Amino acid sequence: MDNWLGCGLFRVVVWRMLSGMSASHFRLGTVLGINQMLSWGMTFFLPAIVAGPVGVTLGQSGFRMLGAFSWALLVAGAGAPRVGKWIDRHGGRGALLTSIVVMAVGQVVLAFTPNLAVWYLGWTIIGAGMSMGLYDAAFATVGGLLGQEAGPSITGITLVAGFASAVFWTVGATLIGTLGWRGLLLGYAGLMLLVNLPMVWLLVPPAPPRPRQDGVEGGMPRSSAQRRALVLLGGFFALRWFITSTIAVHILSLLQGIDLTAAEAVGVAALIGPAQVAGRLLEYVIGPRINLLVKARVGAVLFPVGAVLLLFGGAYAAMGFAVLYGMSNGILTINRGTLPLAIFGPAGYAALLGWLAVPVLLAQALAPTVTAPAIAALPALDVFLVCGAGAAVALTFLLPLRLPAA
Asked: What was the pLDDT predicted at 343?
């Protein structure tokens, strides 16, 4: 898979980007992609590395330690609409810069935490930073700068940022043995301030303030048709990310529950990340030829098809599921930025993303806890099939949507 990505499709996509985008658009997508890789890697993917060691130091259970991360997602969801409104008026550069500083402060607080209360305080600060600095803010920044031409740059952002988990799980697992968890957190704070901050400051242009426009009010569409479209989009992404968060937490145990060995489960799970990148590469290659809603529906249906493959049993079926599931997630991550822009237009785009982020972040925060009893009670294959059925239900939310006439 890695060789195929590196030697084939990846080269095609890079060539297409270089030849089909202006230098400034390509640079913006690359810079914000690196920004997102750093910001996601050192916040969202941080608990997988530090929660266990910190829990041992503080004498706390894993449930309490990870509860702080769920709380951070709730904080991020609460702040997202207000951040979106601010970006609509002032552009996204300031929000991204502020988010980097706030995340770094939260990491320093975590590094010096003496007890559970301060641990939660640190994650509260990081949650505020996440509301200002993850995908929705980056997509809104590009949308404010490029308008309807933002799609290719949004794809570029997700392509680069898609390596966040692989890079920072590897880096974190390597460095924590040498630096300890406190040293790792301080190192991450330094990386935020010494690399991420000046990169965004120097290479992301400020956007001129956008005048208030008709058609949106605080980011909420005025027409009933657009409000219905917003509810359908919010329901679709919330349900999909609820399911994805559930699987992400339990993926290794679920794979072993369908009779894979521990080594096979790790190998199959490792396919998901490259498959996400492959999905984003494919989305870019076929992008100009296929209607955006059609691409989103195809991306949505890949997950249920992958779940059905598991009925055949064995490692190859599991590999097929991992590839289709990963590709589905990769395509839909792009659609979180491109679909609202295409359906609602650039007016109030950032605020719309903020409102759409609320149900998504709430779903991500609650999913692991809410679904834990069902995961424990059901056979692993049944869990996968139920998740696939849920993804099929989510697909129906996309069917009534229509793009405005050109």
From this structure: 86
- Span 211-235, average pLDDT: 71
Fill in the amino acid letter for 216.
V
Kindly tell me if the per-residue pLDDT of 103 is higher than 80: yes
Q: Which domains does the chain have, with CATH numbers?
A: 18-205 (1.20.1250.20), 219-406 (1.20.1250.20)
With b meaning 16 or more CB within 10 Å and e meaning fewer, what string describes 170-208?
A: ebbeebbeeeebbebbbbbbebbbeebbebbeeebeebe
Closest CA to 325 of 378, 265, 366, 269: 269
- Return the HEC string of the chain: CHHHHHHHHHHHHHHHHHHHCCHHHHHHHHHHHHHHHHHHHCCCCCHHHHHHHHHHHHCCCHHHHHHHHHHHHHHHHHHHHHHHHHHHHHCCHHHHHHHHHHHHHHHHHHHCCCCHHHHHHHHHHHHHHHHHHCHHHHHHHHHHHHHHHHHHHHHHHHHHHCCHHHHHHHHHHHHHHHHHHHHHHHHHHHHHHHHHHHHHHHHCCCCCCCCCCCCEECCEECCHHHHHHHHHHHHHHHHHHHHHHHHHHHHHHHHHHCCCCHHHHHHHHCCHHHHHHHHHHHHHHHHHHCCHHHHHHHHHHHHHHHHHHHHHCCHHHHHHHHHHHHHHHHHHHHHHHHHHHHHHCCCCHHHHHHHHHHHHHHHHHHHHHHHHHHHHHCCHHHHHHHHHHHHHHHHHHHCCCCCCCC
Express each pLDDT in 34-68 by its tens digit: 999 999 999 988 987 898 899 999 998 878 888 89
**288/209 Cα distance (integer angstroms):** 30
Question: Does residue 145 have a pLDDT over 90?
Answer: no
* Average of per-residue pLDDT values in the chain: 85
Q: Residue 295: is its pLDDT beyond 80?
A: yes
Token code pair at residue 68: 């702080």
Task: Give the model confidence (pLDDT) of 165-216 as tens digits.
Answer: 778 878 888 899 899 999 999 999 999 999 999 999 999 988 765 655 544 5
Q: Single out the residue of 393, 386, 363 nearest to residue 242, CA to CA.
A: 363
